[in-house]
Amino acid sequence: MAAGFGEHSDPHSLPGNPSAANVPFSEAGLEFPFEKAFADLGKGWLVCGSPSQPRLHSMENSRTPGAPSAAGSATSILGYLPPTPPEFLGDRYFTQQHQLRHAYVGGSMANGIASVDLVSALASSGNLAFYGAAGQTPNRVEEAIDELNRRHPGGTWGSNLIHSPSEPTIESDVAELLRKRGVRHVEASAYIDLTEPLVKMRLKSLRRLASGEVTSDLSIMAKASRLEVASKFLSPAPDEWVQRWLQRGEITEEQANWAREWPICDDLTAEADSGGHTDNRPLSTLVPAFCDLRDRLGKTLPRVNSVRIGAAGGLGSPAAIAAAFALGAGYVVVGSVHQSCVESGTSAVVREHLAKAGPADVIMAPASDMFEMGVHLQVLRRGTMFGPRAKKLLELYRNHSSLDELSSVDRQRIEKEIFRMPLEEVWQLTRQFFLEREPSQVHRAEEDAHHKMALVFRWYLGKSSDWANRGIADRALDYQVWCGPAMGAFNEWVQGSSLEHASSRKVATVAEALMQGAALHWRLLDLQRMGCSIPAGPWATPDFALNNFTLDKQPNSAVRYR
Ligand SMILES: Cc1cc2nc3c(=O)[nH]c(=O)nc-3n(C[C@H](O)[C@H](O)[C@H](O)COP(=O)(O)O)c2cc1C
Question: Does the beta carbon of 160 sit less than 6 angstroms from any atom of ligand 1?
Fold first, then answer.
């Protein structure tokens, strides 16, 4: 942010500027060096002097307006800078309920990219974070959950539960595992409609406390990018399912009754232009639309009113995070930027690639899990050919109904450039994979040649993520790396700072820098509203934000983080 925004020489001439009244004020408390006072976000400051040279005075020892000072001098008060520590950004009820320091969430990243170490680092620094369970076998998820439970029993971490239309048993197995292990936070994502495993999980978590109050042992943070989907999460469980589960004795009569009053989620993230699955919606329209929907549905289902709306997608700089809170988000969710951090489950070579990306180095490409439906996701473009190659496969799938229909030119080209083996060999590998994981897929493919084609093509889409995560050098041009424009924005912000290189990006430090930076940005905006010019300074840099931070300075540092 440029120093010196606010070009007005006299704020009193601004129409309707209530904070800029020239109130005579004697001894407005001690003046502090601008930089020191500005950075002390936990304190409120009186802004004195002139708009072109604002001076910050302590609130301590200040006298009442109009009272004569010892020296008899009067000073102009331009306004009041309220305390703005990062802990004050977002919905305070959200941070309080989840026992967080920041309204900051590390979003799930598939295939363990949101690794145990990444989740653990965020959880132990006062944030909420979700393990990247998607694409993992239930055994791997179980190991990760057990490790997180060991490191942070009852802590501020959770796991992803991803809607998997092509592998429904995986979704229900993971849901059951999370329930049995008593995982307290679940990020439910990629849902187009509600599913039974998710809804049953919600209802089974409801119980009555000794006080008589009904509570849920599970907090569900749902993620959506469309209002139709959002409204399903903000509605009660479908009655038909509730009655069926009641008859089968899978839920109690009380749970069936409470089902009418409880929405499916506790928090609902509006996902805009993010890495991975995205509809590329603008955050500025999506967050307010989700807030309006919540308020509307809350009129008929009162519990919906307490659902917090979060913001995800494109949050890679302090200004973007401050803007998300200004839009009404109760919390923010970050993904792409975390993938470039040392704890992420991807390879060092991918982290290096990510740290060099610019905001435009991303592209939409077909998604493996919803390939047949033509769903796309956002990936890194720089240094990889994955995007165009995956698009070519989707085009062939759409224009042909079986592998046998492919022209010999197309077949040879994809066997040589993309698969590096005959398609029949790819099918044998794919068949073996699905026999172990979801055998119904193999049976279907043996009846349906178009489905077999999809599974063969999805082999490449699945493998390309794996090659990237393992850093297989020979397949560098095929790396599939989910990534949104937030990555480039972050890289631009940290250029020349201690966070420039991927090898120095620790996720808790990155989160701290972004939240401190957002709070500093908020303070700059407060000054701007008073018409002040900001003295030249390093206000917007990551190192200023980080040097500024000491935990014991923060107002609620007494909170214990687990
Ligand atoms: C590499 C990567 C993998 C992701 N995998 C998942 C996932 O498995 N489940 C999910 O709910 N969201 C996933 N996301 C989305 C993130 O949780 C988060 O919502 C999103 O990245 C926020 O937008 P941003 O990328 O602009 O920060 C993924 C994002 C990235 C970058």
Answer: yes
Supply the residue whose CA is at minimum distance from atom 19 of ligand 1: 107
pLDDT, one tens digit per residue, over 383-407 is 999 999 999 999 999 999 999 999 9
The residues pairing with 79 across neighbouring beta strands, listed in sequence order, are 47
Question: Is there a contact between 223 and 312 (Cβ–Cβ < 8 Å)?
Answer: yes
pTM metric for this prediction: 0.91
User: Domain locations in the chain?
Assistant: 11-83+519-552, 88-346, 360-478
Distance CA 160, CA 216 (A): 18
Say yes or no: CB of residue 518 within 6 Å of ligand 1: no
User: Cβ(332) to ligand 1 under 6 A?
Assistant: no
Query: Between 3.40.50.300, 3.30.300.180, 3.30.365.10, 3.20.20.70, what CATH number should domain 88-346 receive?
Result: 3.20.20.70
CA 486 to CA 481: how far, in whole Å?
Answer: 14
Write phi, then psi, for 465 (nearest 5 degrees).
Answer: -70, -40
CA–CA gap between residue 112 and residue 98 (Å, rounded): 23
Question: What is the 194 CA–ligand 1 centroid distance (Å)?
Answer: 20
- Residue 334 CB–ligand 1 contact under 6 Å: yes
Whether 480 is in the pocket of ligand 1, judged by its Cβ within 6 Å, is no
Q: 3-state SS of 292-303?
A: HHHHHHCCCCHH
- Return the axis-axis angle of helices 507-529 and 318-326, rounded to nearest 10°: 60
